[in-house]
Amino acid sequence: MRLNIWQLLFGFALLGSLVLGLMQRKEWVYLWDFPLFFALTGLLGCLFLSWVAKGLVSPLLDRPEDFYDASEKDPDWSGESPAVAPPSSTSRGRTRVGKEG
Amino acid sequence: MLGLIPPGLILIVGAILIPLVPARARSWAFLVFPALAVAVLANLQPGEHLGWGFATYELQLLRVDALSLVFGWVFALATLVAGIYALHLRDTGQQVAALLYAGSTLGATFAGDLFTLIFFWEIMAFASAYLIWARGTKEAYGSAMRYLFVHLFGGSLLLGGALWHIADTGSIAFDAFEGGFASWLILGGFAVNAAVVPLHAWIADAYPRATVTGTIFMSALTTKLAVYTLARGFAGWDILIWAGCLMAVYGVIYAILCNDIRRVLSYHIVSQLGFMVAAIGIGSTLAIQGAVALAITNILYKGLLFMAAGAVIYSTGESRMSQLGGLYRQLPAVFWIYVVAGLAIASAPFLAGFISKPITIYAAEYAGLLGVVLLLHLVSVGTFLSVGLKVPYFTWFGGEPKKPIQAAPVPTNMYVAMWVAVGLNVLLGVWPDPLYNMLPGGVPDYEPYTVASLTKGFQLLLFTALVFFAITNYLKPKQKIQLDTDWFYRTSAQLAWRTAVVPVERFFKWCEDFTWDATRKIARKGFDPVAWTRSILGRPGPEVGIPGETASTTLRVSMTVMMVFLLATIAAVMLIIVI
Question: Would the CB atoms of B481 and A62 count as touching at under 8 Å?
Fold first, then answer.
């Protein structure tokens, strides 16, 4: 495959950051003193967070954009007529407003 | 003498004066007041204070120390930049509201006692709600109402706590709180404004629906003032560490999911506030300095992000990434501005985030909270992923939109404001000393630029980007919304309506019907009382036909109604007298 100039630069930067990490000598006190710790955090953390958000949370909490429309339409307070809401064409999320006056 | 004018007062006076300025000069006149406030701030010295005897209390209208001064500076500067961003605006209501909002924020910043704080706190809630309302859509109307109610709830907690605190201690001073029920109430009030999970839902509900220019003020002021009050009142409270960690993770997960650009940014405010709240919970000098530095720089780059997002919305009228895309050909400058802000928030080297956020993490490491350190590093990854990569990619690139978008030109003043903010971000990134010198407790014991910290920064960002470009399709925003804790009060509104309002309405409707019915019957009998009496006595006389509904009928009906009401009133009065 052919790489464009941006991809090449990106690749060099990746390698450069790894080399820079490996060149430093530092005592290991904490986990994050491991020279490639932040590369791994970026790599695995990104995968992990994407999976949590898109794989776990999204199926649970995603709703259609007009989800709150039903609960926030003009309330039918008289209890007489079946609620005949005019089809809301343009506005999403019609808000609750009191009956006129 | 100039030094003893409260800077907030200048902006509030400005809010009163600005409608009197001729309409064409009004948005320029807007800038005069924050500029004056900056001039006043430059003359304030730590240790100065201005008291005002009110009833039996001595109010502290102006308490100047390192903590209030640094926040005062950034609030005034942010108002100035946001004013430039709004120069094209021709809406006196928004200008007045924005000045009042910024003025009361400055007033609350320099408040030395709880009464003054609460006074300005409540004005802030109303003034900022107007900036949502001014959008004029039905969604914005509902959102502003919910925003107002949530903040009034927070304000009530604060007021209740303050009164309790004053009753307990006899002091109205606003200093560090020492525990007890009153302190917890006040903490609750602050937590609403600081968007502590689960009291945070207002932020993602309101900010995406406010006006393009109003959101800039809101993102800079409300939550950061709450950080200031937390830092002053609740430094070192352990519960804040865990609340902060929860906020940091919670906000970033939602930011990865959301579709609306400004909602991504709003959730990300929750995440960034998490860093600050956690640092305040740690409570060491370094941690507080980190929290303050992060709040200050956050105003700069989060404001810039909202400005760039606002420019896109102003220009295209669309805020959902699922409907956007391929904007780079039309708005390239906005893209590059956004990228600077996105890199700054991800604390890329040589930008403002790099000199502030690592201090909070370093302070956690120094305090031995290793789990917190790991968590905050993870959230940093999510920050770059959601705000720094997802939003720009799916807005300016990421395939063509379903409906072609025609971007209108962005006003020059917006570009000027954005470039000023870019300049401030770069300036603080390469030269943090002015900020570090202003922090409470002296210059922080932290060296931002070392080979190790640069390596960390580059590795984290580059590898996050690598994964992002590998899984872009997986991260594509869906045209959905995500449930949050506002579900509880948004869906229960209908229930409350049915239980509390509908029965009352029905009762009154029944009363009304009954009264009219009775009146009509009496009126009909009243046409010919003699015939009626005869019919009761069983000796009907010659039938008198009831005339048709004529003018005189109406007269009679209304006369009878008046009689009935008169009798009822007399009866009621007599009843009252007897009782």
Answer: yes
